[in-house]
Amino acid sequence: MKAVILVGGFGTRLRPLTLSVPKQMLPMGGVTMLQRVVEHLGGLGVEEVVLSLGYQPEVFLKEFPDGEIAGVPVRYAVEPEPLDTGGAIAFAARHAGIDSTFLALNGDVLTDLDVAQLWAFHRSTGGAATIALTEVEDPSRYGVVPLAADGRVEAFIEKPEPGTAPTHWVNAGTYVLEPDVLDLVPDGARCSIEREVFPALVAQRRLFGLQASAYWIDAGTPEAYLQAHLDMLDGLRGSFEPAVSDSARVDAGAMLKRSMVGAGATVAVGVRVVDSVVMAGARISAGASITRSIIGARAVIGEGCELSELSVVGFDEDVPAGTVEAGGHFPPPTEWPA
Asked: Which DSSP category does 285 fall into?
């Protein structure tokens, strides 16, 4: 199996963290989000990965200069301009010379989906494409996919109005595609696989879906990114992750609860960290309180600060002593680029 992974987006929902790095290069525990995605694929038989790059491609090239991620060979396809999901998949597949059945997936989705099972189901249907589906409480944020009894997709409804979705089974962002699907995407054209390619395949009766109960989370928002860490700490991914890096320095007078602390981070006396992520090299000064928040790499939180309710501190940011914020962003949105 070969897999095209979409990692070219700007990650605007995860700002200010993604002002510094692409979202797939954000840490997820002790490794990057992308490493976790590729490691999972490699363990299920994927033999080569093609990264469809766009935003800050040099970050990926610097991190993985040897053409390998988690033991899986990797190729790079850098978009000349944003091509949307369908255009990006087609560009990367053509760049890598893929001419047989292949996987395509979103690089910000963390899942325990058995792609080998998805592949086998796809083979059994004889369809052109098969979508992995997951069940969610609020389908209005996703592509909703009602199925016939044989698994054929009856419609692809992208982000329906709340309360109007015919099912709670939605597009999980992992696909098995036949190479002729690429014929629906003109070379170099901007094209959405969700809004253009999939509806065209529905009309041809060549699109299938497989409902899966595996762990799944779209980690593309601060809330979901934090939840993905908490799920690892809670053992929902099959094993419990270490909460504190061996190289982190946590004062005996600090209190940590259900939180991850990255390599080289410092947590001073009297600090309270609950349901939060403290990235590598960050420094939490004495008496600070961090609750359900994300602290970026090498950020400095001043003494007595109180950050809560999904406050997000970007990389290398300094938060002045005594700052009290619920849901704050550092730097604030007014300082983000357009």
From this structure: -
Q: Could you tell me if 286 and 302 are in contact, meaning their C-beta atoms sit under 8 angstroms apart?
A: no
pLDDT at 287 over 90: yes
Return the CATH fold of 249-335: UDP N-Acetylglucosamine Acyltransferase; domain 1 (2.160.10)
Length of the chain: 338
Alpha-carbon span 242 to 262, nearest angstrom: 10
The amino acid occupying position 124 is: S
Q: How far is residue 167 from each of residues 121, 201, 313, measured CA to CA in Å?
A: 21, 20, 37
Q: Which of 180, 162, 185, 5 is nearest to 87 (CA)?
A: 185
What pTM value is reported for the model?
Answer: 0.90
Q: How many CB atoms lie within 10 A of CB 200?
A: 15
The sheet with strand 324-326 has its strands ordered as: 255-257, 272-274, 289-291, 306-308, 324-326
Q: Which residues have CB under 8 Å from 175's CB, separation 6+?
A: 103, 104, 105, 129, 130, 131, 132, 193
What average pLDDT is seen over the chain?
A: 92
Is residue 155 within 8 A of residue 143, CB to CB? The reply is no
Residue 244 backbone dihedrals phi, psi, to 5 degrees: -125, 125
Segments making up each domain of the chain, as ranges: 2-220, 249-335
| Domain 2-220 CATH superfamily | Spore Coat Polysaccharide Biosynthesis Protein SpsA; Chain A (3.90.550.10)
Going by their DSSP bridges, the two strands 31-32 and 27-28 should be labelled as antiparallel
Q: Give the model's pLDDT for residue 239.
A: 66
